[in-house]
Amino acid sequence: MAERVAHRDAATALAGKLKAAGYTYVDIDSGWNASLSWVFHTDVNGIPDPDPVRFPSGIPALASYVHGLGLKLGLYAVTGLEKEVYDKNAPILGTSCHAQDIAYRPLTPSNGWGGNWKVDFTNPCAQKYYDSIAARFASWGVDFVKVDGTTADNVADIKAWSAAIDHSRRPMWLTAGAWPVPRSIGPALAPYANGVRVDTDVECYCETVSTWDSSVKARWADLPDWLGVFGPQYRPDLDSMPIGNNTGSGIQDGISDVERQSVMTFWSMASSPLYVGGDIWFLDASAVSILTNPEVIVVDQTGSYPARVTGGNLQVWRKQAPDGRWYAAVYDLGATPADITVDLGTPGARLVRDVVARRDLGRFRGSWTASAVPPHGSRLIRIG
User: Fold this and answer.
1) Where is the Alpha galactosidase C-terminal domain (predicted)?
2) How far apart are CA 305 and CA 152, in angstroms?
3) Which residues on adjacent β-strands are paired with residue 146?
4) What is the CA radius of gyration of the chain?
5) Which residues of the chain form beta strands (DSSP E)?
6) What architecture does CATH give domain 2-306?
């Protein structure tokens, strides 16, 4: 029952409510290979195994179900060598090595929790160990891997994961995760990761998924430090969007519809992967409307990155799409409604379109003003 409710029902809900708009991944986060007491499972070769209580049918059966809906499946991993694998000195597939042979000496804690051992990548068996995990994931039908706990000491781990995925011959999206990944290693990860977490967890770890102050609004302060790092195959990961349910049964988002729209707009201006947090089974109508707006999704899928024109509480951001069109977003991060003006950038009258409302606003010379933007609210326009 736990497997059906937590994962198959989520996949069914995603397929029915969001797939048509382009949402295709069902990503299983931390705990899939651990008991409810956080006792981790690995097989004789130290390869992660699903918890038999949560996944009585195994990952291949779940992947088959997900793929049958036209979706893709993601799994979670962490940097470093699991101490459970080290303690049992698991033999590494295809080698004469064991787990303790690939542990860095002296034993050094690694990853964001310090919970795993640092790996000695000068030993070729270390890559073979990562290869064995990626090969198992590939055999199960996995399409996405989030490697969490990435510190400044873990660039080699992400490089090894990238090589292992290549060796598996199955395409998998690779995201380097942390709370956040240190900005100092952002450029070093670019050849290996498809995405990189640039911010703290969006969750508040309270009675709701999130709140505006904990920690939705942090994204506006933190993303600018990362701009200039990204490219066509290397995206800023802003964590999941708390846009799921704030009206009915199940866990609540903790943010209003105005704040939800600002989240969707900000993620899309950043060309961040659009992940949905919360319990998708209870996705409400306003969430579906916000998440599936085709003109906003186009802004995300341009793959281009914004610049912050003005900071503070009344912010203006701009970016140019590959087709030459400009988009601008305004955000009121303050406590009272405000008018926010956008410089349209070129002489002559420019057509302004409200992308969220999906309607033309008319032609404007020099500038356009978003009137009475509510607290925590936003407007998103296309220029020309």
Assistant:
1) 312-383
2) 24
3) 76, 175
4) 22
5) 25-27, 72-78, 81-82, 109-110, 116-117, 144-148, 173-176, 195-197, 235-237, 307-310, 314-320, 326-332, 338-343, 349-354, 359-365, 367-373, 378-383
6) Alpha-Beta Barrel (3.20)
Strand partners, 174: 145
Give 307-359 pLDDT, tens digit per residue.
999 999 999 999 999 999 999 999 999 999 999 999 998 788 999 999 999 99
The rounded distance, in Å, linking the Cα atoms of 167 and 36 is 33
Tokens of 72: 């893709």
Give the largest CA-CA distance in the chain: 72
CATH 3.40.50.300, domain 309-383, yes or no: no
Looking at the DSSP bridge assignments, the partners of residue 352 are 362, 383
Has this prediction a pTM greater than 0.90? yes
Mean model confidence pLDDT for the chain: 96
- Calculate the alpha carbon distances from 382 to 110, 355, 362, 363 in Å: 45, 6, 11, 12
Burial class (CB in 10 A: 0-12, 13-18, 19+), 322: exposed
pLDDT band with cut points at 50, 70 and 90 for residue 7 = confident
Helix spans in 141-279 (H): 155-168, 186-189, 218-222, 257-269
With beta carbons less than 8 A apart as the criterion, state whether 284 and 252 touch: no
CA distances to 110, 185, 253 from 152, rounded to whole Å, are 10, 6, 32
Q: What is the mean pLDDT of residues 254-283?
A: 96
| Mean pLDDT of all residues in 48-55 | 93
Q: Per-residue pLDDT averaged across 70-76, rounded? A: 98
State in Å, rounded, how far the first CA of the chain is from the last one: 52
Q: Could you tell me the strand order of the sheet in which 144-148 lies?
A: 25-27, 72-78, 144-148, 173-176, 195-197, 235-237
Which residues does 232 contact at the CB level (< 8 Å), separation at least 6?
Answer: 303
pLDDT (tens digit, 9 = 90+) per residue, 120-169? 999 999 999 999 999 999 999 999 999 999 999 999 999 999 999 999 99
What is the Cα–Cα distance from 276 to 171, expressed in whole angstroms? 22
